[in-house]
Design a protein that fits this description.
Layout: H1 7-30, H2 35-56
Length: 57
């Protein structure tokens, strides 16, 4: 019952992290940052947030 990590929870974490990082990415691109660099930073932010999510739960 407790501690059961389902695929749905992982998907929710990915979507939440992606949306949050995507908002910052959109702002960075609008300020003139190169889009490839912005998307690399977004991917890195998603990976870090998923690692933190796994460690804290």
């Amino acid at each position: 019952m407790y501690g059961n990590r389902s695929r749905k929870n992982l998907l929710e974490s990915v979507v939440t992290a992606g949306l949050g990082a995507g908002i910052v990415t959109s702002f960075a691109i609008s300020q003139g940052q190169h889009p490839l660099l912005a998307f690399i930073i977004t991917g890195f932010a998603i990976v870090i947030s998923l690692m933190v999510d796994r460690l804290l739960n």
